[in-house]
């Protein structure tokens, strides 16, 4: 039986990607006041961003309980004796801790290994994809773990924002950084390093921000996998895919949506590029 891969919905892996690879995606929760939704299950990305634009209530997010994760582990353990769980960066969320606690609550006997991706969105998604491809090709669990650990520093993501206001509201950036992004009318570019958000650029227009994302992709000497994701601006994602096509085939680019859980913190106009590869 092949090793099975589990991650969560902050990986932005949609069913069309996760399903054929046999990746199990555990949904997180979004709350609009007293209304609660499972990320990508009860609320599609399109519905979420429409609701985000019209609602006077700022949504909040929550992580499943260890018991919920344990139920998922037990279900997957019916199909395999070995599971690798690849978590959202532990510095960004309590998700990793809940997944760790869940291992001790399993009812079925199964070897299960948990790895902190130190990433999120499709930077996490690409790590999970590579692990699943290796597992499906017959790699044993030690090899899958080794590949995953080696891929963590190789998976990078750049986000282009039109505002840092959503990050500020969610406590992800301080007020001074958000003020800088709004007053100077820039399109901040941020990345994740070791699971923490870091600013990397401040282009003066959306066009320049998209060009910044292109140059990020072009800076890799070798690209193994590449993903482009948007929240509510598919035309921008199309433009970027066309721009990147000469250096990485458009037909191989994973096109996904920023999940509602992530969208709560980044807003509807975020655009992101994730690359699994090497700079030299």
Kindly describe this structure.
The chain has 280 residues and is α/β, with parallel strands linked by helices. It folds into two domains: 4-152, Rossmann fold (3-Layer(aba) Sandwich); 154-278, Hypothetical Protein Tm841, Chain: A,domain 3 (2-Layer Sandwich), CATH 3.30.1180.10. It is 39% helix and 25% strand. It has eleven helices and 13 strands. The protein has helices at 15-21, 45-54, 66-76, 95-103, 121-136, 141-151, 165-169, 175-183, 206-218, 234-244, 260-266; strands at 4-8, 24-26, 29-32, 35-38, 60-62, 82-87, 111-116, 155-160, 189-193, 196-201, 222-230, 254-257, 271-278. The strands form three sheets. It has a six-stranded mixed beta sheet, sandwiched between helices. α3 (66-76) crosses α4 (95-103), α5 (121-136) runs antiparallel to α6 and α9 (206-218) crosses α10 (234-244).
């Amino acid at each position: 039986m092949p090793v099975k891969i589990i991650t969560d919905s902050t990986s932005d892996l949609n069913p069309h990607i996760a399903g054929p690879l046999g990746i199990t995606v555990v949904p997180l929760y979004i709350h609009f006041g007293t209304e609660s939704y499972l990320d990508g299950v009860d609320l599609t990305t399109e519905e979420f961003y429409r609701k985000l634009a019209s609602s006077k209530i700022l949504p909040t997010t929550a992580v499943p309980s260890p018991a919920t994760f344990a139920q998922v582990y037990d279900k997957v353990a019916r199909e395999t004796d070995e599971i690798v769980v690849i978590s959202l960066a532990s510095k960004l969320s309590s998700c990793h801790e809940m997944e760790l606690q869940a291992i001790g609550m399993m009812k079925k006997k199964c070897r299960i290994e948990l790895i902190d991706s130190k990433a999120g969105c499709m930077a996490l998604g690409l790590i999970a994809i590579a692990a699943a491809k290796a597992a499906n090709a017959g790699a044993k669990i030690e090899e899958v773990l080794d590949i995953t650990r080696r891929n963590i520093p190789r998976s990078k993501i750049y986000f282009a924002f039109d505002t840092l206001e959503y990050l500020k509201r969610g406590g992800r950036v301080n007020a001074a950084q958000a003020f800088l992004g709004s007053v100077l009318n820039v399109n901040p570019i941020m990345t994740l390093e070791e699971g923490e958000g870091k600013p990397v650029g401040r282009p003066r227009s959306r066009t320049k921000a998209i060009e910044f994302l292109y140059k990020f992709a072009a800076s890799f000497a070798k690209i193994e996998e590449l993903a482009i994701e948007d929240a509510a601006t598919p035309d921008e994602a199309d433009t970027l895919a066309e721009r990147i096509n000469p250096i990485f085939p458009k037909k191989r680019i994973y096109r996904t949506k920023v999940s509602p859980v992530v969208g709560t913190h980044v807003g509807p106009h975020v655009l992101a590029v994730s690359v699994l590869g090497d700079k030299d």
